[in-house]
Amino acid sequence: MKKLMCIFALLLPGLVLAAGSSVPLDKADYDLTDKASLQRGAQIFMNYCLGCHSMKYQRYQRTFSDLGIPDELGEANLQFTGEKVTDYITGSMPEESASTWFGAAPPDLTLVARVRGADWLYTYLRSFYVDESRPFGVNNKVFPEVGMPHVLQPLQGTPRETNERVMIDGEMTERYVGIRAEGDGKLSPEEYDQAVLDLVNFLEYTGEPARLESESIGKWVLVFIIVLFIFVYLLKKDYWREVH
């Protein structure tokens, strides 16, 4: 019984996150080695997300260094809140004001990719649609009744929920097809998908900045262990040969 309770406790966070929507998640083919993508993602985050959200566990300087951006260039083009390059990335909106406007302070996004997952983020950011009944005029298929505006709408354009009428069990019914923009955004649908993927790539990086370095070190550790095992095995054979 205790084992079942432990397993349930481990699975509960994932079940809670998945319970909000029945929309299938699209695969986010991000690449942490693609620095150009990471730089574009950082630019999108600083321009469209940082007004409300923060990354209080990530420093500007570490970000610039990892992404191959000179500090001077980063300060000039990616810092808008008057902070130093050595400071943490914090949003410009006071928490008290955010709580008043949104009902709750927008969450910190440093670890959001580790909590939600890249596929969830990629699908969520492409699933806003116009819903005049909501306070900000939009809703989301992945996160119904979401309490935030569609900040990337200037890039995507006005998104509309698309459905088709199909026959199910002898009755005509509406079936969700997807989200289509009206074409009034700065980007084409393909370009917008790539922009979202760049942003997700950046969020994946901030969730674990040392991931690539850790994986590289891990490979060399495995090689060392294999070589050490070979030497230990040969030493053991030589030692026991004298015993026998």
TrEMBL record:
Residues 1-18 form the signal peptide. Pfam families: Cytochrom_C1. It is found in: Membrane. InterPro entries: Cyt_c-like_dom, Cyt_c-like_dom_sf, Cyt_c1. Keywords: Heme, Iron, Membrane, Metal-binding, Signal, Transmembrane, Transmembrane helix. The chain crosses the membrane at residues 217-235. It comes from the Bacteria. Residues 36-207 form the Cytochrome c domain. This is Cytochrome c1.
